[in-house]
Structure formats: C-alpha cells, structure tokens
Design goal:
Blueprint: H1 6-12, H2 29-32, H3 34-54, H4 62-88, H5 92-115, H6 119-142, H7 146-166, H8 172-178, H9 186-206, H10 209-231
Helix pairs in contact: 3-5, 3-9, 4-5, 4-6, 4-7, 7-10, 9-10
Organism: Apolygus lucorum (Small green plant bug)
Protein name: Sugar transporter SWEET
Main location: membrane
Length: about 240
C-alpha cells in the first residue's frame, strides 16, 4: 500500500470548479478510498496467492493448512459483511475492496477443500460459516430502519473483523513455550498491521466509528503480534 500524498487528500476536498463545499466532510469520495483500497487489495492478493499453491504441497503440514483455511473462511465472512455495510452507507471504496477480498479468500477455501484429506470436517466448518453469514444477511435485510440496520451490521462486522485479526493470538502460548514465532503467519500479520492502520485513518476521515475503532484495535493487536517476531525469532 502506498500512503496517499498530501495532494491526493487535498484534491478530494476540492470540487471540479475549485470550490470547497462547506457542508461536506474535509475529503470527497474520490480520495476517501485511496488510503484503504490499494492496501486492502494487497492483503487480499498476498494472503491466498502464495497459500493456494502450497495448500496441495506435502511440505505444508495439515494443521497449518487448516489454520490458514480458518483464517480465510473468517475473512470471506468478514469481507461479505463489510461489503453489505459499504452498500448501506453508499461507500464505493469499502464496497469495492471487499468484493475483491471475498473473491480471493473464497478461492483459497475452494483450493483447500479440493486438496484436503478431511473433506467432511472442512465442509462442515464452511457450512457453519455460510449459514451464519446468510442468517445475518437475511436479518439485516428484514430491518426497515436504515440507521438501525447500519448500526447492527456495523457491530457484527466489527466483531468478525477483530476476531480475524486476533486469531493468530491463539498460538501465543505455543510461541512463548517454544520461544519461536515460526507458527505465526508473518505475511498476514504484517499486511494486517499496514491495512488496519490505513483503514483506521480512513474511518477517521469518514467519521465512521465502525470503520475507525475496530481497525485501530486490530492495528494494536497486529503490532503486538509483530513484536513477537523480534522477541521470539523463528529458528
């Protein structure tokens, strides 16, 4: 992700006629998505891109592949929920990047199911994620109050996102015991740190607490996880 230049941010606040609209937020929609779009696409591309190839390789342990699949299925659900949220608040950047995230992480899940030796267990896990996500979708669509729909969907999407970024912490006890960070997914954690910082900034620009707050928390979690690579380097 390339951080937006000052000119990019300023241009977002200026209309084509050179005037600043007093009633609008400091940045217009054209530049609002710059901070988040490229970074989110990079994490979507980088996470499954290398993993899909390795998912069928014998060098990758089944436990590690299963962990990646769990992360990816959680991201599929998270991307879909944020896509819905983006459509509710009519934000093109949030909608676009989460379409890409949904497609790329779905491709990893499909690849894992294809190569997995425990298809029944895996399909059961995928089915649970799909059913829960569909239930949330149906419930949100049933709400007549748009503001209430935004609030409830925002809360659910925040919870799913934070749980995704905090997932590697499940290996914390093992990392401390083995004094090695080998079990932690460095590329995912690093990109998560970059992405959540940019999206928390983007949420501040939008003045949307559902975008800003969970991403700031996720940024702190990712930063802590990155510190483990310095404290317990891989052997």
């Amino acid at each position: 992700m390339n951080m937006p230049s000052v000119n990019c941010l300023v241009e977002g606040a200026i209309h084509s006629n050179g005037d600043v609209k007093s009633g609008d937020p400091p940045y217009e929609h054209e530049s609002r998505g710059i901070q988040g779009t490229d970074s989110h696409l990079r994490i979507s591309l980088s996470n499954p891109a290398g993993s899909i190839w390795s998912v069928g390789m014998s060098k990758i342990h089944e436990e590690r592949r299963h962990s990646l699949m769990n992360d990816s299925s959680a991201f599929v659900s998270s991307s879909f929920l944020w896509f819905l949220y983006g459509t509710l608040i009519e934000d093109q950047a949030i909608t676009l990047v989460n379409i890409f995230g949904f497609l790329f992480f779905s491709s990893y899940v499909v690849a894992y199911v294809t190569f997995s030796t425990k298809k029944v267990t895996v399909m059961r896990h995928v089915l649970v994620v799909v059913v829960l996500t569909c239930c949330i979708f149906v419930y949100i669509r049933s709400l007549d109050d748009l503001a209430e729909a935004k609030r409830k969907l925002g809360i659910v999407a925040c919870g799913v996102s934070v749980s995704f970024f905090a997932a590697p912490l499940a290996n914390l006890a093992h990392v401390i015991k083995s004094k090695s960070s080998e079990s932690l997914p460095l590329p995912i954690i690093f990109m998560s740190m970059v992405v959540t910082f940019l999206w928390s900034t983007y949420g501040y620009i939008l003045q949307d607490k559902f975008v800003a707050y969970p991403n700031m928390l996720a940024f702190l979690l990712s930063t802590f996880q990155m510190s483990l690579f310095l404290i317990y380097p891989s052997r």
